[in-house]
Amino acid sequence: MIIDKESMQKLEALGNKKVMDYLNDAIALCKPAKVTVITDAAEDIEYVRALALKNGEEAVLGTKGHTIHFDGMADQARDKNNTRYLLAKDVNWGMPVNSLNVDEGTKEVREIMDGIMEGKEMIVSFFCLGPTNSPFSIRCMQITDSAYVTHSEEILYRTGYAEFKRAGACEDFFFFLHSAGQLVDGKTANIDKRRIYIDLENNRVYTVNNQYAGNSVGLKKLAFRLAIQKANNSDWLAEHMFLMGVHGKPGRTTYFSGAFPSACGKTSTAMIPGQTIVGDDIAYLRNIDGKVRGVNVENGIFGIIQDVNEKDDPLIYEALTTPREVIFSNVLVNNDKPYWLGMGVDIPETGVNYSGEWFAGKKDDAGKEIPCANKNARYTIAIGELANADPMRDDPQGVHVEGIVYGGRDSDTTVPVSESLTWAHGVFLGATVESETTAATIGQEGVRVHNPMANLDFVTVPVGTYIGNHLAFGKQFDKAPTVFATNYFLKNDEGKYTNGKLDKKVWILWADGRVNGEFNAIKTPIGLIPEYEDLKKLFKDNLDRDYTEKEYNEQFSIRVDNYLAKMDRMQAIFSKIDMPEEFTAELNAQIARLQDAKAKYGSVIKPELLK
Fold this sequence. Notes:
This protein is of the alpha+beta class. The chain is built from 18 helices and 35 strands.
């Protein structure tokens, strides 16, 4: 009997026919040797942790609670090429979309998954996106043969068995079916048959022949795509955003959300010293009693570990180097201790990493040197393990969001921080985010890409509809959140970064001061920017650093030609998309302001000329 009496009783207690139908279909398709049902109970969660070690998917490290997981050499990042939407009909998205007919795609992936769990244990678990028993809650059912995937989800998400029990026969939930596939030396073997198919017609996901969490942990970015569609069919927003509490003054907390593409400082912003974190990656925003309220969809962090060091990211570093539950992935292990790129300590010359036994100078089959740790190596940790976890992070009604920050990776144009002129201009700033590519996705690094709301990879409705819903969302409120744009990666003429990594604290505290009416600002063609004296005081009070007027002018002078070149790129992109008239008006107004300023002040405008 592949499913024992105890597991069957757990299922029957839910009283949900759709749950049983999904499970019976998965058993018939994948043909596991055993089926185990996991509830919210502590002993069930401990069973999953132990199974990940027993299966060799994780190994114990020297610090209590720390484990290591390795993905295969060709399984180190999100796989865009093999991630496809399954659709019943063609949709004019206004952007390149990798999609298949739902019948064709379902048939293909099910053929790949036929018998894929033979000899393996199938794990059935239940989770909740967002706080439980909340207007934000979305229930999820997960089936996988990977204890590592389930263990990761137990850290990253709130358990949801009780949510399913509370909902009874309700069929409104997301479903995920995953298999790591055939394993060789513990790594997925059939990478050529890797598929990540997101069925937008039926709110379900098939993902197979992968282990890297960005592809395999269904509740992460795969569920996010389903939620974006759900939100855009209603009047709320599902966004690629952190949520944080900013403490500009003792006793005051102002909540901000923020969208940054991968590896652009998103997690480190949410973890700025002296502030509190609600979440670092995905947020739902709703109108509750006339206010924008937001929740963290997740309960943990799946963060890029490269360059996390004691100096630049003290809170994260402390959490990763002391006893608590952490899964490290694709770092170097030497003497049961993890090491990663940019750690700020001496790296051993030998050890074990995602390539197997590693030594300095080791090369892959193409003759390329293998680093000690992958650039996209990660850590998985519960937010409750962090010293700066916000006390309101589990509030079922969410936190009151008063500011929104959009950031990209831009070396030559965008100033470090600016404030939008209006809500509509703020939506424009979010929609025109550009960022240089990094190791977080498979492909070439250093290419500048347009990434509206830092969400291009995940949007599951036409771009014009998505932007239109943002514009409409803000109109629901007497006082919509104030919108800011940030850029931590501006370089000077010598090609050097104009800011240190900790400077982001000043930018977010300035934004907090603006929301709370504490600072004046200079109106420029691209928005409102700080006055020098305010930044000088913020740098001295918070970083004990003398911020010079030379630095200020270097960072906040408006590079008009570069902004106009960006607007040319935006016009070329948006002219091919059916965009709301309100957005087009914002684009044209931005261009006109820049052209007028250039005619009056020249190609580079120092702030003092506009004050």
